[in-house]
Amino acid sequence: MPKQRKEPSQTWKTFLNNYVGQLVSIDFFTIPTLQLRVLFVLVVLAHQRRRVLHFNVTEHSTAVWTAQQIIESFPEDTALSTHEITQSVQAWSDGRETLENIPR
Q: How many domains does the chain have?
């Protein structure tokens, strides 16, 4: 006899409605230029108002630069420490970090 599935505690839509004010998207992409250079772009978007919180462009992307952009995206009282962000970005770029190990 098959086991009955339990109802989820909340639906995905309910989750999004409950936390939309605290959700952001971070997009990191490259743009080739006409001078055959590559620019790295980081954009942080707030979901609640669909607005750009922060963006920056560089020719030389590093873990330290990326961590600094994340720090600048959020008020001081809501961001992780500089050390925590830098460690996380370096671990992700090395392939050592997974989503389950993100510092909270």
A: 1
